[in-house]
Specification:
The complex is a heterodimer of chains A (187) and B (601).
Chain A lengths: L46 E3 L2 E3 L5 E2 L7 E2 L1 H18 L12 H7 L2 H10 L1 E4 L4 E4 L6 H4 L2 H12 L10 E2 L4 H11 L3
Parallel strand pairs in A: 4-7
Antiparallel strand pairs in A: 1-2, 2-3, 5-6
Helix pairs in contact in A: 1-5, 2-5
Chain B lengths: L13 H4 L5 H9 L17 E2 L13 E7 L7 E2 L2 E3 L2 E5 L6 E5 L5 E6 L21 E3 L2 E5 L4 E6 L5 E6 L14 E3 L2 E4 L11 E6 L5 E6 L4 H4 L7 E2 L2 E2 L26 E3 L4 E5 L20 E5 L6 E6 L14 E8 L2 E9 L4 E6 L4 E7 L7 E4 L11 E3 L5 H4 L5 E4 L13 E3 L4 E7 L2 E6 L13 E6 L8 E7 L4 E8 L8 E3 L3 E5 L4 E6 L5 E6 L5 E2 L2 E5 L2 E8 L3 H6 L29 E6 L3
Parallel strand pairs in B: 1-35, 3-39
Antiparallel strand pairs in B: 2-42, 4-5, 5-6, 6-7, 8-9, 9-10, 10-11, 12-13, 13-14, 14-15, 16-17, 18-19, 19-20, 20-21, 22-23, 23-24, 24-25, 26-27, 28-31, 29-30, 30-33, 31-32, 33-34, 35-36, 36-37, 37-38, 40-41, 41-42
Classes of the chains: A alpha+beta (187), B mainly beta (601).
C-alpha cells in the first residue's frame, strides 16, 4: 500500500485505493480527504476517562470484558450507526452494494481522518461510480455521537464485536450524558 | 395526436363517459394493445397482466435470450422499459439516462438523454439511487429525475420540451417514482420520508409543465385537498382539520408521508389511487397522534386533486411500514355481486381488498403468516375502532418506549412487500405477489431534525423469521377470501415486479439474478435463467414482428442491496447458520443490463 504524505483537509492525494478523488466536495468547503494517513495503533485500551477508553495514542477505543460486556460508547455507537449510517453502509459496518464497509475503512484511517471525513463528506464520481457521502458536521445526531460511531466501528474492525447487538453494556457515564445534552442543544 | 385542451376542470365522474377528444383517450386505446407496454404498470389498473399468449406454460421451458442491452450504469435498477410500436424506452438509476431503442433496426439507439444533476443528491436518496421508470403521453416521455426535476422529452427526438422542479433536494426531497399521465396532466409524487419532507402528489400540464394542483399528505385541509363534508373515511365524512388534529404542533411540516410508490387510475370513476409513506421520524414517541394522512390510501379526482375517500392503514406508524405499494384495480364478483375492487399489499404485512368506488373495507388479512405486530384489523362496523389494526403490545415500539430494543417484530421495516409490484390475472383471479420474509429488532430513540439530513431515530437489525432459512416468498393470493393459494420459497427477498400473462405463465426476477417463469395455477417452476446481475426490476412483455418477448432489467441494489449485500446475519455465528443466511455478494455483483427473451424461431 502506498502512502502519499499526510492527508489533511484540502490535500488531495491519489493512492492506489478504491476512492478516486475529485476536487469538488459535497459541502462547499474544500475537503476531499486523500488517502492515507497513518493507520491507528493497536486498539488496546490503556486508560479510561469518564467511561471512555483510550488507546496508547489517546484515540478513543472500545473495551469489551471477558463476559462480553461492552463499554457505553460501543453500545451507543451501535445504535447510532444503525440509525444514521446503515442506510448506506449496510448493517454492522459490512458495506452495501454501493458504499464501503466501514469496519474495514477504519483499519486504514486515522482517528483524525475519520472525524474529517464524517464532518466534511467525500465524493467519488467517475464514469463508473457515483459515490457521494454528505457532510455530517452539522448533523447533531451524528456529530454529537462521532466518538461513539468510531468506537463501535473499531470494535467491529478487529472482530472483537461480531455482527450482533451488544448483549450487555456498561451504564451511561454521567459525563457522557451531560456532554450529549449540551451538544444536542446547540441547534 | 390530440390538440384539444380542457378549458376548465371538470368536476366529477362524468368526464370519461362524456367522451370527446381527450389526451388520455390515446393512452386508454394504446394500453389495450397488448403488443405495446405504454404504462409502467402495464395499464391504468396496474394489473401487470398481458393478453399475449404465444409463450405458454407448455412452451416456456424453451425460452431463449433474444438480445441484451447494457445500460452503462451500476447500482440498483428498478422499474422496466416502455414499448410503443417499434420504440423501446429504457431508463436507468442516477444519473437517470433514458435510451430510445429502435426495435425495427437492430435495437439501435435512436436518442439518448442524460441530464446533468448535482451529485450531492445521491446521498439524500435513502435507499440507493433507484428510478422506477418513465411515462408516456401526448407524444412525450416523462422522467422524474433524482433531483426532482420532472422533464418532458419528445418521444421521437429526445429533445426537452419542458422541465419543472418538483421538490427541493437540499431539504431531502428526491425523485424515484414513475409518473402517470392522465388526460392532459402528468402526476408525480416525491421521496424523502427519512428526511422530514412534507410530501405531496402533484399534477402538471402535459403541454406546458405548469402546475395544476398539489395535494400534501399532511397539513391543513386546503393543503391536503380534503373537503371536510365530501371526503370520506370508511363511508363517513372526514370532518375539519382531519390531519392537523393528529399531529403535535407544527410536526406535520416535517411529517413525511411520502408518495414515492405507484399510482393507478380508474377512467370510469375518474379516480386516481396512490398511497403515502411513513411519518417522520421513525421514533414514534416523538410524534404522538395518528399522524394523518401518512400510511394512507387516497382516492382523488385527477382533474381537481380533491380527495373522494381516504383510508389510513397504519395509524401512528411504529415500524416504518410505508403505505405506498401499488393499488391493483379489478372488477370481480364478491358474494354474487359485481364489485369494483382495489387490492393493496401493504408493507405492514396485510393485504387489503376495498371497494374502490367508496373506500369500503372488505378484506384485510396477513399475506405472510409470520406477521405478528397486529392481531388483525377490526372489521366490526359498529366498533369505535372499526378499520384500525389491533397492535400487539409486545411489538409496539411506542408502548415499549424509547431506548427499548423491541425484538422479533415481523415484518421488518422493509415490509412483507416493498414497492416491487404484484400482478393480477383475470384468468385465474389470483394475485401474484413478490414478498419479503424478514423480521427485525427495532429500537427507537430521540433525534433532532436538521433540514436535508436523515431524520430517522431508530436502530434496526433484520434477519429471517426464527426457524426459517429463506428470506422471501413468491405467492398467489385470493383477494376475495384473503388467503394464500400457493407459495414458493425464495432464498432472498423477491424484489422484482411480477408479470401475469394469458399464456398461463407468471414471471418474476430474483435477487440472485434469475428470471423465473412459473405456472399461474400451481406455482410450479417452468423456466429460469441467470441474468448478469441481481433483479430488482419489473418484468415486461411485448410483441414485435410476430414474436412475444419478455424483458427484464438486472442491476442489484435498492434497499435489498443495503440490507442483503453482506447478508442479514453472520454466517459464522450461532446455530443453524446455513446457506439461506448467506451474503448476496456471493451470488451477484453490480451491473445494469436489459435481457430480452423469446421462443426460438
Amino acid at each position: 500500500m502506498m502512502h502519499f504524505g499526510l492527508a489533511a483537509i484540502g490535500i488531495v492525494a491519489c493512492a492506489g485505493l478504491a476512492f478516486a478523488e475529485d476536487a469538488a466536495s459535497p459541502s462547499n468547503e474544500a475537503t476531499t480527504v486523500g488517502k492515507v494517513s497513518t493507520p491507528p495503533p493497536e486498539p488496546t485500551p490503556i486508560k479510561s476517562t469518564d467511561g471512555k477508553y483510550l488507546d496508547k495514542e489517546g484515540n478513543p477505543t472500545f473495551n469489551i470484558t471477558a463476559d462480553g460486556t461492552v463499554d457505553w460508547f460501543t453500545y451507543s455507537g451501535f445504535r447510532h450507526y444503525h440509525s444514521e449510517c446503515h442506510v448506506c453502509h449496510g448493517p454492522y459496518g459490512e458495506g452495501s452494494s454501493y458504499a464501503p464497509a466501514l469496519k474495514d475503512s477504519v483499519k486504514d484511517m486515522s482517528y483524525g481522518d475519520f472525524l474529517t471525513t464524517v464532518a466534511n463528506g467525500r465524493k467519488n464520481v467517475t464514469s463508473s461510480t457515483e459515490n457521494v457521502m454528505p457532510a455530517f458536521g452539522h448533523n447533531l445526531n451524528v456529530a454529537c455521537h462521532i466518538d461513539d460511531l468510531y468506537i463501535y466501528l473499531r470494535a467491529r474492525s478487529t472482530g472483537a464485536l461480531g455482527r450482533v447487538r451488544p448483549a450487555n453494556h456498561e451504564g451511561k457515564p454521567v459525563a457522557a450524558a451531560l456532554q450529549e445534552n449540551s451538544c444536542m442543544d446547540q441547534r | 395526436m390530440h390538440k384539444v385542451l380542457f378549458a376548465a376542470c371538470f368536476s366529477a365522474a362524468a368526464v370519461m363517459a362524456s367522451g370527446g377528444a381527450q389526451a388520455n383517450d390515446e393512452l386508454i386505446k394504446m394500453q389495450q394493445n397488448p403488443k405495446d407496454w405504454v404504462i409502467p404498470a402495464g395499464n391504468y389498473a396496474s394489473t401487470r397482466y398481458s393478453t399475449l399468449k404465444q409463450i405458454t406454460a407448455d412452451n416456456v421451458a424453451k425460452l431463449q435470450v433474444a438480445w441484451t442491452f447494457s445500460t452503462g450504469v451500476l447500482r440498483g435498477h428498478e422499474g422496466g422499459p416502455l414499448i410503443i410500436g417499434n420504440m423501446m424506452y429504457v431508463h436507468t438509476p442516477f444519473p437517470n439516462k433514458v435510451y430510445a431503442l429502435d426495435l425495427n433496426d437492430e435495437n439501435k439507439i435512436v436518442w439518448k438523454y442524460e441530464p446533468k444533476q448535482d451529485p450531492n443528491v445521491i446521498p439524500v436518496m435513502c435507499c440507493d439511487t433507484v428510478n422506477r421508470g418513465v411515462a408516456y403521453g401526448d407524444g412525450k416521455i416523462f422522467l422524474h429525475q433524482a433531483d426532482t426535476t420532472l422533464v418532458a422529452l419528445d418521444a421521437k427526438t429526445g429533445k426537452v420540451a419542458w422541465s419543472v422542479q418538483n421538490g427541493d433536494p437540499t431539504k431531502g426531497g428526491t425523485g424515484t417514482s414513475a409518473p402517470l399521465v392522465i388526460k392532459d396532466k402528468v402526476l408525480i409524487g416525491i421521496s424523502g420520508g427519512e428526511f422530514g419532507v412534507q410530501c405531496h402528489m402533484t399534477a402538471y400540464d402535459t403541454k406546458t409543465g405548469k402546475q395544476v394542483w398539489r395535494a400534501f399528505s399532511e397539513g391543513p385541509d386546503d393543503q391536503i385537498m380534503f373537503d371536510p363534508e365530501k371526503t370520506t373515511v370508511l363511508g363517513k365524512p372526514v370532518g375539519k382539520d382531519s390531519s392537523l388534529k393528529t399531529w403535535q404542533g407544527d410536526q406535520w411540516k416535517v411529517g413525511g408521508g411520502c408518495t414515492w410508490g405507484w399510482t393507478s387510475y380508474d377512467p370510469e370513476l375518474n379516480l386516481v389511487y396512490y398511497g403515502s409513506g411513513n411519518p417522520s421520524t421513525w421514533n414514534p414517541k416523538q410524534r404522538p397522534g395518528d399522524n394523518k394522512w401518512s400510511m394512507t390510501i387516497f382516492a382523488r379526482d385527477p382533474d381537481t386533486g380533491m380527495a373522494k375517500w381516504a383510508y389510513q392503514m397504519t395509524p401512528h406508524d411504529e415500524w416504518d411500514y410505508d403505505g405506498v405499494n401499488e393499488m391493483i384495480l379489478s372488477d370481480q364478483q364478491v358474494n354474487g355481486q359485481n364489485r369494483k375492487l382495489l387490492t393493496h399489499f401493504d408493507r405492514n404485512g396485510l393485504a387489503y381488498t376495498m371497494d374502490r368506488t367508496n373506500g369500503e373495507l372488505l378484506v384485510a388479512e396477513k399475506y405472510d403468516p409470520k406477521v405478528n405486530w397486529t392481531s388483525g384489523v377490526d372489521m366490526d362496523k359498529a366498533s369505535p375502532t372499526y378499520g384500525r389494526p389491533k397492535v400487539v403490545d409486545q411489538y409496539s415500539t411506542d408502548k415499549q418506549g424509547e431506548d427499548f430494543n423491541n425484538k422479533g417484530i415481523c415484518p421488518a421495516a422493509l415490509g412483507t412487500k416493498d414497492q416491487q409490484p404484484a400482478a393480477y390475472s383475470p384468468d385465474t383471479q389470483l394475485f401474484y405477489v413478490p414478498t419479503n420474509h424478514v423480521c427485525m429488532d427495532y429500537e427507537p430513540f430521540k433525534v433532532s431534525y436538521t433540514a436535508g439530513q436523515p431524520y430517522v431515530g431508530a436502530t434496526l437489525s433484520m434477519y429471517p423469521p426464527p426457524g426459517d432459512t429463506h428470506m422471501g416468498n413468491f405467492i398467489a393470493w385470493d383477494n376475495k377470501t384473503g388467503k394464500i393459494v400457493w407459495s414458493n420459497k425464495e432464498q432472498f427477498s423477491v424484489w422484482s415486479g411480477a408479470l401475469a400473462t394469458a399464456g398461463g405463465v407468471v414471471f418474476y426476477g430474483t435477487l440472485e439474478g434469475y428470471l423465473k417463469a412459473v405456472d399461474a395455477k400451481t406455482g410450479k417452476e417452468l423456466y429460469k435463467f441467470k441474468t448478469p446481475s441481481g433483479i430488482i426490476g419489473n418484468v415486461t412483455t411485448y410483441e414485435h414482428g410476430g414474436r412475444q418477448y419478455i424483458a427484464i432489467l438486472s442491476g442489484v441494489g435498492g434497499w435489498a442491496g443495503i440490507g442483503l449485500a453482506a447478508g442479514l446475519t453472520d454466517p459464522t455465528a450461532g446455530l443453524g447458520a446455513v446457506g439461506g443466511y448467506a451474503s448476496l455478494n456471493n451470488y451477484t455483483a453490480l451491473g445494469g443490463a436489459l435481457t430480452v427473451f423469446a421462443l426460438p424461431q
